[in-house]
Amino acid sequence: MLLKAERLFHTSYHSQAVHIRPICRNARCTSISWELRQTLSVVFDAFVTGQGKKDWSLFRMFSRTLTEPCPLASESRVYVDITSYSQDNETLEMNPPPLSTYQDVILGTQRTYAVYDLFDTAVINSSRNLNLQLKWRRPPENEAPPVPFLHAQRYVSGYGLQSGELSTLLYNTHPYRAFPVLLLDIVPWYLRLYVHTLTITSKGKENKPSYIHYQPAQDRLQPHLLEMLIQLPASSVTKVSIQFERALLKWTEYTPDPNHGFYVSPSVLSALVPSMVAAKPVDWEESPLFSSLFPVSDSSSYFLRLYTEPLLVNLPTPDFSMPYNVICLTCTVVAVCYGSFYNLLTRTFHIEEPRTGGLAKRLANLIRRARGVPPL
Questions:
Q1: In what order do the strands lie in the sheet with 77-81?
Q2: pTM for the full model?
Q3: Does residue 1 contact residue 63 with C-beta atoms inside 8 Å?
């Protein structure tokens, strides 16, 4: 077991999911079974963690090694892609060396994988420890990662806090195949969509969807729902854009950090793509073992679902410090005005008459007169 929660937060990206689906046990699907699939996708930046080197090992990444296969599994294997260095032993060194390899065509290229069968006693040695290590004897050449045939981007544009535009870019990089894509957008109600501004363009020309369904939002009850079936031409970029207006929320509906913005859920792309697209490495999680994926027929198509990145939209935000300022100003005005008015109503004024001196003062004045000194 390699999963160590602490190490996941040292990665550039990690995603854990649980998938449950029914599986037909016969051709008529009169009896079904349930399949439970757990996936964990982790991206390590070996160049940063390795201090400028791309060498990696299981212990360096997970702080653990493989000690035994999964006790509940009938097959437990580890696959390592060694396509670029399978024929060049002077560049890459694998420890321990693989006992077998697997080859197949993915994305139109021949791929080679080193296979480690954990049920093989020769793989996990007597110390019950398997630590895969890859070392480069010389710096590897920088290669651009392959671009999938179907991918998408989403962004928000505009200025100010009144209106804006949601845009989605759909990329079909296949050189000669066109295929339809079902685009689903769920937009919060506080972004009021202008459906008449919906535009779809491919290669600079209008691309009319073959199916469109729109369900308007209801304030504080349900969001907008926009669903379209769009045909993506080969080697094209299709842009789907729609304008919106920001609504004003009640002051109790804002989050504790309203100036951070509000998140808009990503778009969902569903498509039947050619087999080469569906066999890209992203779909390896369809089955953890390659025996269930290969061989792949070029004439078949596979269902693929993609998600774009979520958006962060700023809404008109009131000054939440204004109540404090109003309270301070009001209390000051009330204290000054009410205090003065209360003094005028409750204070009485009297004329103070001069008081004559007593016997001691008179005697003192007589003595001062006798001496020629002015009286008190």
A1: 77-81, 109-117, 100-106
A2: 0.63
A3: no
Radius of gyration of the chain (CA): 39
Residue 221 CB contacts under 8 Å (≥ 6 apart), including other chains: 189
What is the rounded CA–CA span in Å between residue 119 and residue 74? Answer: 9
Contact 269, 181 (CB under 8 A): yes
- The strand ranges marked E within the chain are 13-24, 32-43, 56-57, 77-81, 92-95, 100-106, 109-117, 133-136, 150-157, 163-172, 179-187, 191-202, 205-206, 211-215, 224-232, 236-246, 262-264, 268-274, 301-307, 311-313
Residue 10 lies in a domain: no
Boundary-marking domain end, from 82, 109, 136? 136
Write down the pLDDT at residue 140: 60
Q: Cα–Cα distance between 260 and 254 in angstroms, integer?
A: 11
Range(s) of the domain holding residue 325: 321-376
- Supply the pLDDT for residue 299: 47
**Local confidence band at 359 (pLDDT 50, 70, 90 cut-offs):** confident
Closest CA to 376 of 346, 349, 353, 356: 356
**DSSP per position, 84-149:** GGSS-TTTEEEESPPSEEEEEEETTEEEEEEEEETTSTTTS-TT--B--EEEESSPPPP-PPPPPS
CB distance 280 to 191 below 8 Å = no
Is the domain of 180 the same as that of 52?
no
Cα distance between residue 110 and residue 198, in whole Å: 42
Q: Are 126 and 109 in a shared domain?
A: yes
